[in-house]
Amino acid sequence: MEARELHVERLLGKKVRDADGRIVGRLEEFHVEVVDGEHVVTEFLIGPAAALARVGVFLTQLPFFGFIPMPTKEYCVSWTLMDLTDPDRPTVRARRNELRRADE
Amino acid sequence: MKKILQIALGIVTSVGGFLEIGSITTAAQAGASFGYQLVWSIVLGTACVAFLVEMSGRFAAVSKHTIPDAMRERFGINFYVVPLFVLLGVSLLVLGAELGGVAAALEMATGIKLPIWAIPVALVSWGLLWRASFSVIENGVSILGLVTVAFAVGAVRLHPDYGAVLHGVVPTLPRRDASHYWFVAVSVLGASISPYLYYFYSSGAIEEKWDETYLAANRMIAAIGMGFGGFLSVAVLVIAAILFHPHNIDVDKYQQLPDLLTPIFGRTGFWLVIASLVIACLGATLEISLALAYLIAQGLGWNWGEDLEPRDDARFSLTYTLIVVAAMLFVLIGLDPLELTEISMALTAASLPVGVFPFLILMNDKKYLQTHTNGYIGNAVVLVISLISAVLAIVSIPLEIVGS
Amino acid sequence: MHLVADVLDQQVLDKTGNRAGRVDGIVLEVRDGRPPLITHVEVSPITLLARLNRRLAERYARWDQRLGKGRGVPFRIPWSRLEQTGKAWRFDTDAEDTPILALEDWLRVKIVERIPGG
Question: Which member of C43, C48, C118 has the closest CB to residue B77?
């Protein structure tokens, strides 16, 4: 079993596709837990892919603009479903509509 | 007792350090071209910067972070480089204008041509940064900057129609020369709301080890210091409105600046203007150089601190050295300080959202400020004024270029 | 804990509490059948530049190699040697003993100390 290295800062922002090749979003965050005394990444947060949506999310963080409904889809993906064999093209081993939404 | 002294010092240094080439020339141009009509732009700009300065101090005191620290941490490097490069670019132009302001004053005082002063002025500025401690720079030069109170005295001596001045506080539409009116308004806003000012203020608060006990003092320094500073700008506008406007004299050469005080104080007025320009612009030079060096050093995580010996923060020291050299080149190649001022003030206004929006997000982030996040009024004032400034700038800059 | 919000781009402090750069990168080890393990953080202009422009990072790495033996690669701190203090991350060595301050030291010796008053 070969140990492979990945860089979080290079994975950040990469477009993630599902099993059908559809774009799910972009890698935004990595949840970490301590399992068996080790710090491991248990979940990946995937956010909106479209540039305009990302700018929109930034703008809604401004005071008084938080009321604007930003239809962003965020997904929480377990490490078991994440395929990072190609770090430039991460994929999930499921269909987009099977993934758990982050706001659930 | 100590707090009261610190508040007093903070107010004095804010007032003394408020005027610089940008605020002096834009206020003079506003008064000369439009009488009292543009007083509102100074009021709006001063209000906005007072809120920004208070926020900046509060942010540093509560979160123990400077603004560049938090910007890199909260938004990441890929976002951080955007305000970094925009602020760097615009502020270098402003810095060139300030160095040019000192050189222009020395040219008027001695007759020795402006570009020749580029190197000596840059050398003195750099020497002060290299050797002097933070307090000496921040406080010493700003206290000397109180010489600019001469403009307030001068304005009072001219017996202005205070009612008419107050009328100018209410924004009105221009009766003539609309595009120039808005361009001057934008320049005034850009001169008042300098991003380097409130970015620098957060680093200063950290240097002076502020904590939550300083919040009330911070509010007073911001309100009273910036408030009185704004009054000085209005004073310059009033003088120009009374002395230049009736004769249709526009301010488009820096050699006209002494004419603001010579009719009132005679030969002494000339030297008051020279002294004001030299001290005020020197102070701004030091502040901008440090602000930009802080922006880079803090974003990259270097050791930083004006009170450290240069040998203890080599990268930080060499960064502000390079910044001073870069700005010096503008003066060396003979760029007119007045034109450079106009351009840099307008660009500052146009780029305000780039620096202000992420800062507003930080100011409403409980992770940094806990119970001290922004209130509605602060958010509204800053958001609205910076948006207005940017929109006006984007519209009026091309029109001004076409018109001139 | 979240890597992007809590670790990446945060300030790094050395044993004495001095600022020693920022977390410019985080290294994970991918293992079959087990979740990815955090192994190191990288504190290096090479890592930082790579996030902006790959070619710029490579050019910087080549220049950095000339500064000494073992240079030209990002400096790594093992995850086990890091401890969170507030929002910052402290590691158990003096920064002087690491390449983090190599550029700082080089500039100090070659330039700053040669200028009067440095």
Answer: C48
CATH number at residue C11: 2.30.30.240
Residue C100's domain spans which residues?
Answer: 3-114
User: Which residues does chain C have within 8 Å of residue B317's beta carbon, measured at their own beta carbons?
Assistant: 112, 118
Rounded mean pLDDT, A19-43: 94
* B117-175: pLDDT as tens digits: 999 999 999 999 888 877 777 788 889 999 999 999 999 999 999 999 999 999 999 98
Q: CB A63 to CB B357 under 8 A?
A: no
Q: What is the mean pLDDT of residues A20-32?
A: 94
CA distance to partner chain A, nearest, from residue C38 (Å): 6
Contact A4 C29 (CB under 8 A): yes
CATH superfamily membership of B2-403: Amino acid/polyamine transporter I (1.20.1740.10)
- Residue A104 has a pLDDT of 59
d(CA C52, CA C25): 12
Per-residue pLDDT at B320 = 92
Contact B91, B349 (CB under 8 A): no
Paired with A92 in beta bridges are: A82
> Domain tally for chain C?
1
The structural domains of chain A, with segments of one domain joined by +, span 8-101
Residues 71-90 of chain C whose Cβ lies under 8 A from any Cβ of chain B: 86-87
Dihedral angle computed from the Cα positions of residues A56, A62, A67 and A69, in that order, rounded to the nearest 10 degrees: 10
In sequence order, the β-bridge partners of residue A55 are: none
Tell me which of 2.30.30.240, 3.40.50.300, 3.30.70.260, 3.30.390.50 is the CATH number of domain A8-101. 2.30.30.240
pLDDT at residue B12 greater than cutoff 90: no
Give me the interface pTM, i.e. the ipTM.
0.92
**Mean pLDDT, chain B, whole residue set:** 93
The pTM is what? 0.93
Cα gap A51→A54, rounded to integer Å: 5
Mean pLDDT throughout B183-207? 92
User: CB under 8 Å to B304, separation ≥6 — which residues?
Assistant: B293, B294, B297, B298, B313, B316, C19
